[in-house]
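Annotated sample (chain length 224).
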Amino acid sequence: MLGENGYRARKFFSCISLLVILTGCRPEAVPRAVVVVAETATPLPPTPPPTATPPPTEALAPTATATAEAAPSATARPPVEARFEPAACRFEVPAGRDVDCGYLVVPENRDAPEPDDLLRLHVARFRSESASPAPDPIVYLEGGPGGDALEMVPFAFEDSFAPFLAERDFIIFDQRGTGYSLPSLAWQEYTALSLELLDDILAPEDAFSQQMEALRRCRERVAE
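Output written by the structure step:
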């Protein structure tokens, strides 16, 4: 029989042997805890990605609403209508003829919105010799161009124009810029020179030089 000390020693070695077996004969190994997640566990909902926060929007300034305002319109002047202004005849009236003279006033440019420049055309209307003349008169247009129609009346009326008075009135007028119409573009300097040289005999180059000088002075006067 073993003594009490022998029994205790045997019991001690038995416990050591059991511990070695349990640890796989590696006394330094320490059992580790293993966490197992149950497969039946309900998965957590995915976390949504962070939403980008838009940058702060600057307050827009109130848009000014353009209000169409009608520009103040200048009071349009009424169109200038042609009119006849009776006046004395500027030429020598042939003896025994019934004639009415005056000025036909018309705008220089009828397309201008405000025609300020007016033309005054000198007009003569010779009355027909008939007691019941035709309603449509004859209107004479001078040639040239630039001829003075009324200036020639005292010299050519009886032969050239009087025969027409048997049935109709006869109207003669100085076209714009000519004769007695206003403004006049008559080249007075050239006319005066022509009268001055009537009795002179000049070489062609001398006459031409003086004529050009007269025309130059006339142009400068008209252009002012």
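Annotation: Strands lie at 83-86, 99-107, 118-126, 138-140, 170-173.
Annotation: Confidence is low (pLDDT under 50) at residues 18-42.
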